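Hi C.,

You asked whether I'd gotten around to modeling the 92-residue construct. I have! Everything is below, sequence then structure, no commentary in between.
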Amino acid sequence: MTASEEYDDETKTKAKKAVESFLMNNFEHIVSVEFTHVYQSEMDGLNVDGTINGGEAEFSAGIENDFSVGSIGLGEGFPEIKEECQEETCDY
């Protein structure tokens, strides 16, 4: 069994929705979010990888048990964080 098979479809869907909402609400100029991989990290955490705006830039997000985004890695060319979200993460 691969790591991605350890999460059921409902868990994967909740994680994807949380990441999409986080990105749309906290970053400038995000039109679309595409997911490439939902998997268990080496540290047993739930991770979601993908791209935005048709492959413009990549991201990797670590998801907490409550489906909040605990960490995010942004690839080269990723849009800037919204000014109002720089001091404190905007609601998502």
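If it helps when you're writing up: Confidence is low (pLDDT under 50) at residues 1-5.

Thanks,
B.
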